[in-house]
Amino acid sequence: MTPTLNADPAELAKFSDLAHRWWDKNSEFRPLHDINPLRLDWITGLCPLAGKRLLDVGCGGGILADSMARKGAAVLGIDLATKALKVAQLHALEAQTPNVEYLEISAEALAAQQPGSFDAVTCMEMLEHVPDPSSVVKACADLVKPGGWVFFSTINRNPKSFLFAIVGAEYVLNMLPRGTHEYGKLIRPSELAHYCRSAALDLQKTRGLEYNPLTRRYWLSDDTSVNYMFATQKPATAGG
């Protein structure tokens, strides 16, 4: 690893330690399994995936990458958590998922190698885990083709998100391992919008993700106060 790598070793270790549980739908990763159909439907509604070349940045164990490949896309998933990538590769072999591959590389390094190579890029639940999220946003913008889509999801930073996403999810409901999220690393929509503008990405759609702990049901809404998603597009021409 180079000293300038945009990754937190403690974050990588955290997800590597849990890697073997990634595809257990009753494990700490149950929320990712539960929200994946919602994320996938929203993405495909804006950007039909069949025949497209997609990149999933921070793919972890491959939950989203695997499902996008099954929609007919050729998917590359990248991450820096070695064990999680091995789990993703093993699952793809066991499930015989077509057209998905995984690579241990940072978004910034891949952007230097393959700029403008992908029809769409997804970066979900990842920005709040890196030291410099704006660098990842810039790399995603560099990796997508002109006119292509870049999708982000992350967690807002405010008292409500602290109560719901950290205290509630990690300490009361035990939906996530304690310490999964650090409040100071959470990202306000205004901040993410600034990162996108700086990377020449046009924000097209915003959606919130809500959860009812009694019914264990998730749904998409206009409420971006806790979990939220951005759909952005790279201008089709250099002039925008």
Summarize the topology.
Elements: H1 9-17, H2 30-46, E1 53-57, H3 63-69, E2 74-79, H4 82-95, E3 100-104, H5 107-113, E4 118-124, H6 133-143, E5 144-155, H7 159-172, H8 189-198, E6 202-212, E7 217-221, E8 227-233
Parallel strand pairs: 1-2, 1-4, 2-3, 4-5
Antiparallel strand pairs: 5-8, 6-7, 6-8
Helix pairs in contact: 2-3, 5-6, 6-8
What does this structure look like?
By secondary structure, the protein is an alpha/beta fold. The protein has one domain: 3-Layer(aba) Sandwich (Rossmann fold). The protein is built from 8 helices and 8 strands. An 8-stranded mixed sheet has the order 3-2-1-4-5-8-6-7. Strand 1 (53-57), helix 3 and strand 2 form a beta-alpha-beta unit. The radius of gyration is 17 Å and the shape is globular. The N and C termini lie far apart (36 Å). The mean pLDDT is 89.
